[in-house]
Amino acid sequence: MVSAARRLVRSLVGALVVLLLPAAHAEYSVIDTSSGVFSCVLWVHLGKAAGGSVRHFLQANGVYAGLLNGVARRCSRKARSARGKLVFYEVHVTKVHATWLRNMDAVVVSLRDPVARLVSAFNWRHLDGGGHVLRPESTLALEQQLYSCYPHVEDFAQAVIHNATLHPRSHCARVMENALHPPEELPKHHLSMGLDFYIGDLLRSGELAKIPIYALRSENLAADLVSMSTSLGLRLRTRETGVTKSGYPRKHDALSGQTAALLRQSKALQEEYDIYNALLNIAINKPQARAP
Question: What is the pLDDT of residues 98-114, one digit of tens each?
Answer without folding.
Answer: 988 887 889 999 999 99
